[in-house]
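Quick start: read one record
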Amino acid sequence: MSITRRRLLGGSLVVGATAAVPLGTLAASAQAAPRAHAAPPTHFDLALLDVTNKVIDNYNTRDVVADGSEGKFTKRWSQFHTGGWDPLELRIRNIKGVGQVFMVCGADPKDALDGKVTIHRSRPDSAENVGWDSGLPIFPHCIEYLPTVDAVIVVGTRGHETGPGDRTGGSYQLYTAPNGQQGSFRRVGTTQPFRQAHGVLWDGQYVWLYGGRLLQAFTVHRSGDNIWLKDANRKLENALFWNGHDLQLDPVYPHYFWATSSQRILKINKRGPVPDVEWSLPEGAVKSFSRHKESGLGVWTAADHSDGNPYGNSRVHFLWGSSAGWAWDIVNHPDAKARIYKARILSQ
């Protein structure tokens, strides 16, 4: 793995002049140093988005130890503090003129219309802030970079409430991407409707929005500072998508998506004119799912609602471990009060 990726969330956080509130700091330990030997396939970095403690904790699976019949994360190598709001997405991307960045979005559910977006340049010794927005009234759940138009899109589950039924809100907001200059990261136009937009993903050709019961592709266009999406006439509405949450590309087969609804993990083939659900696994209240390229491990999170928290619990689940030589189906956060909304793979 590269030094840049291994230290992605390491170093000190330098808040840009445009930041409206302090974002906290990143604490990196010696564990952030790159290892000279080749890591086994099941050793990779995971970022755990904890909505209870308002932090993103970073662990490596090599440091999981036995905890009864389950595993437990140890030796956290860095931590990102949001400054008091729930981190609901982390994406790692390369932005033109800026380089590798990590992008975080979210909000406090008690004030969901004060959404936060923050983008940081990744350096070995710092995490310089290059983009910041607050007061985004859509309860942001996901963020993506659109390289062909040098733009950023944030999606959320509030705004543009329309009937019938429940969970009627949902929107997306476009931005000019940061270029390292103050003020370069800014909103373009107003929020646009997409019901219960939880997920957004660029696949190299289309930007896909996911939420409610709908997966839909759009083309992206730009003229000057005007940026817009256009329906690509590729969509699938499916009851299996109910309250659709996460959307990720398969790291080996890019014509496949991995997605979650509130009841299932889904494998979706997007190669044809209409996406097709080829496989699904029933799992209650599942939130995030992604697959590690080298080992093939599936990594997912869920909420059990036992304490009234709909965003997660203190566990990370693993699929297909036996074929990868992985010992645990469940690995616990060392803080039993942590509520992990998403687990994001940092190193492939």
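Helices lie at 3-6, 321-324.
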